[in-house]
Amino acid sequence: MEGEKKGKDDGKSPKKPEGKEEGAQGAQGGQTGGAIDALAAGLSNYFSSAVKLDDAEKVLSEVSFEGVAKYLKSDKCTNIITMAGAGISTSAGIPDFRSPGSGLYDNLQKYNLPDPMAIFNIQYFTENPEPFCHLAKELWPGHFKPTPCHYFVKQLHDKGKLLRHYTQNIDTLEHYTGLPADKIVEAHGTFRTSHCLKCAKEFSQDWIKEKIFAEETPTCDAEGCAGLVKPDIVFFGEKLPDRFFSCVKEDFEKCDLLIILGTSLSVQPFASLTGRVPTKTPRLYINLDKGNTDVDPFMMLLMGGGSTLNFDEEGNYRDVFKKATCDEGCYSLSELVGWGKDLRKTVESEHKRLDAEIATDKQKTNATKGASK
Question: Which CATH number is correct for 29-94+139-188+234-365, 3.40.50.970, 3.40.50.1000, 3.40.50.1220, 2.60.40.10?
């Protein structure tokens, strides 16, 4: 969920929490216990990268897209982390948040929101859940097919090279590729489970889907509760999942190649993860533009990171920018490594299978509607 919130002092509109950057839900609440350790690690990494930059091990034979492909193909590259944003899902028909005209935030007028970001604000949701429920119906997982980029991430897993896939997205498309759940970190939560905001009872994806598609406000069925039930996606004003922070601490020091896909690197603390990998680790960024590479230094340190992306800096020895859509970039990289034919074959066969499943599901839905009339 990208963008800044524009709170109004009318007592009803959602307000931006003081002292927080956009989307920085995870740097609060339950995460304070590890903040000091992270900051200490960040300072250590920062000074290490600043002082020993000239002595850093140069892993890439050449600082280019082709150099990354050569390294990816080698036996030295076995712990890849992928970081993904909305750009990996746009070719599936899911809008991103920021693109002028086509982005999600530019097309929410029909909900009469006080502010576009209100639809993902926890305070506003508790007061008026209907707009989010209507949007959730439009964006519900299962109506879309994974993109070639999603299948490329699965290909990295199949080749034994993927350490973990970190995503800002809530569309769950990674799961539809067959990528194991333990390989996925959904930084902004998931539709796969839901909880009552009052008593914390858990509900299944099928349960809340039935409520949302029936255009009913999902309320808890526990005796004496009747609280509002919300999918476990992270709204503005909520902390990120605990698993995000535990996996970050475990994974990033092991990372030997970081691939960043389709994110503007504007949302914290996710964006600061780019600096958490070791100073020798190559970083490939596939996107239509170079995004926000000037990360807030304090946030970078708080997340235990070292240096920002330095594509154009003199002495750059590891950062590569590939201007392309995520699908184009992943296809090109897969081709260079020698996996391109297999990736295209997988995408074609899986899309055919999913098309058949979607058609069957629609037939069942239409039959149910007809029987209820």
Answer: 3.40.50.1220
